[in-house]
Every structure is written in C-alpha cells, then in structure tokens.
Amino acid sequence: MSDQKVVLITGASSGIGSATAEHLISRGYRVFGTARSPQKTATVSGVSLLPLDVTVAESVSRAVQAVLDAAGRIDVLVNNAGLGVFEETSIEQAQALFDTNVFGVIRTSQAVMPHMRARRSGLIVNVSSVQGFIPAPYAAIYASTKHALEGLSESLDHEVRQFGIRVVLVEPAFTRTAFDANSVTAATRLDAYAKERSRVAAALTATFQAAPEPHGVAEEIAQAIESPHRLRRPVGSQAKLVGRLRRFMPAGAVDRQLRKVYALE
C-alpha cells in the first residue's frame, strides 16, 4: 500500500472545497472530492470526483466505500459541504440547513470513523466559521449550525483521540466564494425587517467582494494535516483578531463593533 495520504473532501465542486483539493494535490496527497452533481462540476486535475449528498446516508456510505475500494484507506476527512440561509426562514428551510451543515458532518464522520479506528489513525477536519463563535445578524440559522459544529467537534475530539483520531476546526472569516450567491432565500419577507435587512445585505456584499480568495483556507487545512494538532485554526488575521476580541474584550464593546460591521442601527 502506498504511503501517500488519502483525503476525502466533501463539497469539492467550488470555493473552499475545490481550492483545498487543488492545493492538497499539489502537495502530493491522493484526493477524492465529492459533489451532489459531479457531471456538472469542473474537474481539478488529479482529483477523483464522486457523487455525494451529505443529507442521504446511503449516498454517504457509497462514497466512502468507493474511496476505500480504490485507495484502501481514508487518512483525512475534510467536512466542507455547506449551505447558507437568511433569517425569516421557514422551519423546513432551517431543518434542511441543519441537515447539511450539522447532520451531514455527523453522517460522513460516522461513515469513516470505523475505518480510522481500525487503523488507529485519522484526522477529521471540519470547516467552521468565525460565525461559529460570534453572532451573525440576519444569518441566525446559519450561525447556529456553526455553533453546533464547534461543540460537536470539540466533544468528538475528546472521544476519539484514544483511537489515534483527532478533530480540527478550521475557522475562516468572510471568504470570496459562491457562498453568498448560493444562500437560500428566506421563505417569508417581513416588512418590519426590510430597511435593516437591506443595509445588512449591502454591507455583506461589499465585505464578500473585498474578502480574500479561498486559497488561505486551503493552506490552513494543509497545515492542520501536517502540523501538530490544534483544535481551532482561525484563518487569516481578521479571523484571529475576531477570536481574540471575543475572548478578551468586554461584551458591550464586542456588541458595538459587530453592529458597526453589519451596518445595524
């Protein structure tokens, strides 16, 4: 069996997932990427692309088994697949978002863990966000999925390290991807929120346009694989600053700065 590390990346069709797949290939990894519709996805040279819907258990099992059949093992799982949604969502939309961002991570992690446990070695990298530890006005449901992912990851890391498996959280700030364009439109738009919602949307659009490309996140994921374990890995100076402010600044100061960033009155 080759010593080349095998990495499985969910949500590799674009953005952070695609950049990570390309970056890890350049560093000598054997990479399997997944997408809901691989036939509609631009290929990355050297990446084996598989169909995978993280909301369907059978789809997860098939993809994991396909990697094991082809490579014999999975050394690293990168849980990147995710969706965004604005506030004023229906319960059905919120459930769908949790199904992807939280339960999708549970499904893929549970699918690979028996194989990692048998080898007594493995790494699960969960792509979180600074919105996993700070509020996100007008993205309350999305932020709650990332808060859940943070608690899940930290707890799981304690459970599985006895088997040589570790869990890492990679926490980007705003990143220039198709995330904003792919956000789900809220089921109901309430006039009471219209004025403020419009200001927040304009502020976020400007922030996304000025945000860095996903290559920095891809590099941080590579460092998570290759460096000594560290549970939380904020990406870039902005994310690191936000983390320190959240921990050490008075709550009132953090609240005021957050409202300024989101253009809230």
Q: What does this 3D model show about the protein?
A:
The protein is of the alpha/beta class. It has one domain (6-192, 213-246): Rossmann fold, CATH 3.40.50. It has nine helices and seven strands, in the order βαββαβααβαβααβαα. The chain has helices spanning 15-26, 57-71, 91-101, 103-119, 140-160, 194-210, 215-226, 236-248, 251-261; strands spanning 6-9, 30-35, 48-51, 76-79, 122-127, 165-172, 232-235. α2 (57-71) packs parallel to α4 and α3 runs parallel beside α5 (140-160). It starts with 5 loop residues before the first strand and ends with a helix. The mean pLDDT is 88.
Question: What keyword list fits this structure?
Answer:
single chain, 265 residues, alpha/beta, seven-stranded parallel sheet, 7 strands, 49% helix, globular
List the helices and strands and how they pair.
Blueprint: E1 6-9, H1 15-26, E2 30-35, E3 48-51, H2 57-71, E4 76-79, H3 91-101, H4 103-119, E5 122-127, H5 140-160, E6 165-172, H6 194-210, H7 215-226, E7 232-235, H8 236-248, H9 251-261
Parallel strand pairs: 1-2, 1-4, 2-3, 4-5, 5-6, 6-7
Helix pairs in contact: 1-7, 2-4, 3-5
